């Protein structure tokens, strides 16, 4: 980096660092803490609904972030919520040529269980922007934000009930230095998709995908289908299993639409669905062939197998079908 570049960087970084400590306004929850949402969340996570000694329903602590989410429509927050962008520091860093994200660190901490009827909101504070750091992937900055969650207390001081730490590394990818030449610049190599971790328990699934088959693990003892695959049946604890080839037909049981951070090579908005197969089990997969705003729960879908990374990776994805 030249002296002139260092001076220019210092100037724009002053604007970024001036934001450290800035507190962004409230983002309110659409709904009060309620039993139906708790029940549905626990069902999806495969856990029991917690209760207190009197039998009153409690919200699992890991649900904290869920209560203040905007829903399937991006940035659709309740009236009274702030319109400030708490990610403005990230936008400023991106504008200086640091567009990439290698990982996001998210840590939840909790003060207590939430009870039915509580109304929540959170505020965001830019906690820190690290010094420039160079890694094998490139050079960039760690940015940390803190979301503090509060329960509204009528006639009293609102009570802090938890906190979310969000840390991201924004970096400029490292490029090898090549000798100057009059030849046309080569096109940048496409960023590959990350390959899944494959073990003895899951190898059959990915081998099946390469053959255009959607294979689901089945317990030989009780016939229970299970996904993701595992070494032992959670129903009867048998270690004996085989597979069944699914029809590939199913419905969208639930879904999320990923907007940010934008991680290559995915296109955004990026809809990801929890698909309930006609055979009865569920799996997570990308939804293709439809605009993100048109995905609906209950929508009929069919699997298709698409190749990536020059054919080295084959993934099952789901496309909506007419009914």
Structure description:
This protein is mainly β and 323 residues long. The relative contact order is 0.11. The protein is built from four helices and 16 strands. The strands form four sheets. Strands 1, 3, 5, 6, 7 and 8 form a six-stranded antiparallel beta sheet that branches. Strand 13 and strand 14 form a beta hairpin. The chain has two domains: 171 residues, Thiol Ester Dehydrase, Chain A; 118 residues, Beta Barrel (OB fold (Dihydrolipoamide Acetyltransferase, E2P)), CATH 2.40.50. Helix content is 13%, strand content 35%.
Give the CATH topology of the largest domain. Thiol Ester Dehydrase, Chain A
Task: Give helix and strand order, one letter per element, not per position.
Answer: HEHEHEEEEEEHEEEEEEEE
Integer tally of domains: 2
Just give the CATH class of the largest domain: Alpha Beta
Radius of gyration: 24 Å
**Architecture of the largest domain, CATH level 2?**
Roll
How many alpha or pi helices?
A: 4
Quote the beta fraction: 35-45%
Q: Which consecutive residue ranges, at least 5 long each, have pLDDT under 50?
A: none
Distance between the terminal alpha carbons, to the nearest Å? Answer: 59 Å
Overall structural class, as computed from helix and strand content, comes to mainly beta
State the CATH superfamily name of the largest domain. Hotdog Thioesterase
Helix content: 10-25%
The average pLDDT is: 88
SS elements, strand count = 16
From the spread of the alpha carbons, the general shape counts as globular
Largest sheet: 6 strands, antiparallel
What kind of assembly state do the chains in view correspond to? single chain
